[in-house]
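re: that chain from earlier
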Amino acid sequence: MSDQTPQPQALPAAHTVPTHLALADTVLSLGALTLSSRQLLLLLLGGSLAASLWVRTAPLATVVPPVGGVLHWAVLILLALLILALTFGQTQGRSLDVWVIVALAYLSRPRLSLWRSLRERPLARKGEAI
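^ sequence. v structure.
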């Protein structure tokens, strides 16, 4: 009899390939609603801005009772709709805040381009205007 112990065979290494690289990480999950870090930040900033505007526009309701109350609520509702659209809205695979940045970059570019020759101008002689 031989005292050879059987050698375990080496198993091939198994590697998992990540498949969800384009998805944002979930920070908060409430039932069917999952929020990424960007969405949570936008909602927190929007809520903070809405609370600040609510306090600052409260005197409108007392100064001009019927119209001021409507303006007080209208400002809050419009801001809430804007924040919700920026947070959850997407067009052509990009979020709306990215489109706002693209639009601002486009609007900040000059509309007129002026071509000038790169050749040097001839030196002016004494007494001549350049």
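Residues 36-105 form one domain.
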